[in-house]
Design a protein that fits this description.
34% of the residues lie in helices and 9% in strands. It is an alpha+beta fold and 114 residues long.
Length: 114
């Protein structure tokens, strides 16, 4: 009988050269990371690797080292930084920014000194 922790894992049955059938467990792989706004796949982050492989990677291999790296795609990041610059130069008010983008604009203002 499998351990209680193994009861929910995906399993395969493999026939050994001696003729026995052995149960083996499949390792889970990390899912595709998506953008926080538009749900596109993020580039520069490990997709489809085993969780143990991702944990063994260095921090710089896990996500880009730019603002909102590993959270937003490049298009959304550009849009957020432009919105933050407009708010900082008072061309636009923070209340005029869309609700879904507001928290990211506030974070960007904190990082660019607004």
């Amino acid at each position: 009988m499998p351990r209680p922790a193994d009861r929910w894992r995906k399993r395969t049955f493999v026939r050994t050269p001696g003729g026995k059938t052995v149960m083996r467990f499949k390792d889970k792989k990390s899912s595709e990371h998506t953008c926080g706004l538009c749900e596109k796949e993020l580039h520069g982050v490990p997709n489809g690797k085993k969780n143990s492989e991702v944990l063994a990677m260095a921090k710089t291999e896990k996500r880009p080292t730019r603002i909102f790296g590993g959270v937003l795609c490049s298009g959304c990041t550009t849009r957020i930084i432009e919105e933050a610059a407009m708010v900082k130069t008072k061309q636009k008010e923070l209340s005029a920014v869309s609700f879904s983008e507001k928290k990211f604009v506030e974070m960007a203002l904190g990082k660019i000194g607004g």
